[in-house]
Fold this sequence. Notes:
Elements: H1 3-9, H2 23-34, E1 45-50, H3 53-61, E2 71-78, H4 93-110, E3 114-118, H5 123-130, E4 136-145, H6 163-166
Antiparallel strand pairs: 1-2, 2-4, 3-4
Amino acid sequence: MDFEEICKERYSTRDFSNTKADEKALGRILEMIRLAPTALNHQPYRILVANSDEGIKKLEKSKAVLYNAKTVLIICSDRANVWANRYSGETDVLIDTGIVVATALYAAKECGLDSCCVCNFDPEELKKEFGLPENLTADALVLLGYKSIECNPSERHFSRRTTEEFTEWR
């Protein structure tokens, strides 16, 4: 499957089967994330893999919406290791985290897994449950696994703007 096909076919899975993500596929996804571009290659992230019953329970305590996923990547930004724009002072951390999340979502499809990005959780509770150090902030969860038989894309998935609607040529 080429990248354009992956972009067209992938959708947010909101109902996973009870099967955990394949370990080999998970390893490939993490390797592709390792190769994701970040500002000055600082790689300001840390990823926790929650795929044990204990890890999933900790996510549930943090009020995470999991859609029955049994494997979850907790994408954390490392706020102590970021690049800042010399003119605005803004850091790249959320852009870099977004690149990592997008890479994980598309890599999952490449590896035969279904996925969903979730930001609906209590980050402070998650930090407490997983004992994260002060410099790490949980920004997103990437749910991984296999969609249930009943799972279909949301109606919103098919609502896309044309390129003309978001492109301005100068």
